[in-house]
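chain below, 214 aa
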Amino acid sequence: MIRVLLVDDHPAVRAGYARFLEQDGGIQVVAEAACAGTGYAAFLQHHPDVSVIDISMPGAGGLELLRKIRQRDIQTKVLMCSMYDSGSLVRSAMEGGAAGFVTKSAPPENLVSGVKTVYRGQRYVSDDLVSVALRREVDDETARIAQLSLRELEVWRLLAQGYSVAQCAQNLNLSLKTVANNQTAIREKLGVSSTAALVLLAQRHQLIDQPGMR
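prediction:
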């Protein structure tokens, strides 16, 4: 039996995931969480075989939770989920230690296959992501985004959502100086000088929702 932790801020999404997974018969959802903080606590308590984590959640997001979980247990299996198919997100998650990536628009069978595949120690991307994940030629923006660490990606996501440096520090349990330094590094690596440019770039690469979505 594969023991799974589900982390997503939408109860309906978690309920749907749990139903599809447990219908398989060989998968058991041992815990659910609505944010990165409770997700990490559930991970420590239940020691799941596979953690299924949504990238975009209020406060600290899925990439930050991925970083913390991998820091705690380098052998753990994580399957990331997103409503987007951004190539930069897929690469960042996989390079950050995720074993797989599934979009929420993919057929539910992809989620079941993803959990089973990463549990066996193999990598998995949903059917609609194969061309994205295997594409070798990336544009200049995506190449710059790939330079960011998982923490920098998470700080960027929060800044682009309108969080202040102090709010980012509180959400990620970091010092103001660390977040300020991350902000400087993010702007340098992305080649942008204004907050507006950071927001537009985050929207274009689907790191945050565009106005009117979700």
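Strands lie at 2-7, 27-33, 50-54, 77-82, 100-103, 124-125. DSSP finds eleven helices and six strands in the chain.
thats it, cya
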